[in-house]
Amino acid sequence: MLLADIHLGGIDMTAKRLSRIIDRINAVQPDVVLVAGDFLTDWAADSADIIEVAAQMKRLRSRYGTVAVLGNHDHGSNTLLLRNQLEQSGVTLVDNGAVRRGPLILAGSGDSVSGHARLGGTLAAVRRLRAKTDGAIVYLAHSPDILKWLPQGPAVLLAGHTHCGQIVLPLIGAPVRVSQIFGNKLRCGSIRIGDKHIIVTSGLSTSSLPLRIGAPPDFWVLTLSGASHAG
């Protein structure tokens, strides 16, 4: 299960709406829940929003738990409180690290948009895990831009951040360039570039404007098989 861009605290993501989404996710009975960042809507989110989003994450139910990275909106004056609350709620944060869950090695990147990506740390953590056990590697990042720095070879990358453009107009498409590096090439959906398979979720909420046109919110139910397939 992949979700991202909760942005709790915005007018279109209340605690009540998020609770309903959590219920829908739990109904799927996922093996693992992956959250690709942006739990909050504001860089200076108040403690009430942080406590609430962590409480909602605690309600998630899956076989191997919830694994997450932070997004650019999560890095602000209360980042430490957010980290602490999420971890106390059972969320495993893997920014610039990696963890094994079932048959998978989940390799997390810090947020590249806000300058917190340290892929060297991620790859070092993967090597330590691979020295002890086998496992298919799945990369998790807030922004799909991290694709530029992934090592050569087949890989699966799961990301959010783009909101699928959030406003996508007929004929014109998405007026906003959603990726700093790849433009709209990685706007959303299932994308293959060479031997890399990228899944970019549209996310659950909005940013800047509480409006979506032609880019509905979503979360992804994924079935992973082999070392480099997602479907």
Characterization of this structure:
The chain is built from four helices and twelve strands. The protein is of the alpha/beta class and 231 residues long. It has a six-stranded mixed beta sheet. A four-stranded parallel beta sheet has the order 1-2-3-4. Strands 11-12 form a two-stranded antiparallel sheet. The longest helix has 14 residues.
What's the helix-strand series? EHEHEHEEEHEEEEEE
Query: Taking Cα atoms only, what radius of gyration do you get, to the nearest Å?
Result: 16 Å
Q: Name the structural class.
A: alpha/beta
- The amount of helix comes to 10-25%
Describe the oligomeric state of these chains in a short phrase: single chain
Main β-sheet: number of strands, strand sense, barrel status? 6 strands, mixed
Mean pLDDT over all positions: 93
Q: What's the arrangement of strands in the largest beta sheet? A: 5-6-7-8-10-9
Number of helices: 4
What is the tally of beta strands? 12
Strand percent estimate? 15-25%
Shape: globular
